[in-house]
Amino acid sequence: MTLVELCAGSAACSLQWLQAGAEPPVGWPGSKRLYAPTLLQALGLRPGAGAAERVILVEPGPYGALWDGLRHPAIRSSVRSILTAWEAERARDIEGLWRQLRDRPVPEDEAARLAAWLVLQQWSYWNKPVLDQDGRWRTHGFNAAATRREQTQGCKSLTLGDLLASLARLPDLSRVTVLRHSAEQLQPFGDAVVLLDPDYQGTTSAYGHTLPRSRVLELAQAWAAAGALVTVCEQEPLPLPGWHHLELGAPVGHGRTASRQRREVVTLSRPPAGQLGLFGG
User: Fold this and answer.
1) What is each CA distance from 244 to 32, 40, 92, 247, in whole angstroms?
2) Phi, psi at residue 8, to the nearest 5°?
3) What whole-number distance in Å separates Cα of residue 99 and Cα of residue 96?
4) pLDDT tens for residues 20-42?
5) Cβ neighbours of residue 166 under 8 Å, at least 6 residues apart?
6) How buried is 100 (Cβ within 10 angstroms: 0-12 exposed, 13-18 middle, 19+ buried)?
7) Which of its termini does the chain have fewer beta carbons within 10 Å around, N or C?
8) pLDDT tens digit sequence for 216-226
9) Which residues contact 201 (CB under 8 A, 6 or more apart)?
């Protein structure tokens, strides 16, 4: 069986399936980090049960570049070495390091580029995406609050040591297939569980590509017709006759509560597994 994440982004569900408790190393808009256990349950998947199974991540954006690089032990080791050196030299001046990396050209060396992106994204304002734009980093400002707030204020104080630790906790990715193109370019197939998490309609896209609602519906139906179990994430139920809807609610964890202003609804081609409640199915 294969787990396919279309518009994978931080790939929170795949990480949890590969290794129980595994999480994305840095924040990302729309990440399903706090929803991953519930989504896996709805899909009939158990955390940690996918270590010997196949995973396909379709992601043309910067997180796709990270996953593609970290699949290789040598690059993964080099990224950790670079971050370790920065921790020894700049641990007390994260903002200075962040601004220095922002102002430099995007490194040509893959490990150096990934290490720089991890630091820039880790302290990006509101986790907004840091992108390579014509060889320069495009950012949205430094998140100074992340270096000052105590955990009691609902936000961890982030250090380079935290970033290194998060990388160390990632599962083995050597058997993961990473496709750096749009979700539309992967031919649907059966014997698969498909999670489609596009940019939500009416929101600003943070992804490497944008899928209009019409294409989201077409993709979901094409994968279902091929025999896959399909789940689509959105902020409202999707108009797919005969499909099932599950509202996830606001997750609570890691010292914070998700925004109450946005709904999280999944539309499934089959009823969800377990005891999760349906509505409007």
Assistant:
1) 20, 16, 50, 10
2) -65, -35
3) 5
4) 999 999 999 889 999 999 999 99
5) 23, 24, 25, 26
6) middle
7) N
8) 999 999 999 99
9) 213, 234, 235
Helix (H, G, I), strand (E, B) or coil at 77: helix
Distance separating alpha carbons of residues 58 and 207, to the nearest angstrom: 11
Contact 132, 107 (CB under 8 A): no
pTM attached to this predicted model: 0.90
8 Å CB contact between 134 and 60: no
Q: To the nearest 10°, the Cα dihedral for 231, 204, 28, 141? A: 180
Helix (H) or strand (E) holding 257: strand 256-257
- Determine how β-strand 54-58 pairs with β-strand 252-253: unpaired
Distance CA 114, CA 120 (A): 10
pLDDT of residue 262: 67
DSSP symbols for 130-144: PEEETTEEE---B-G
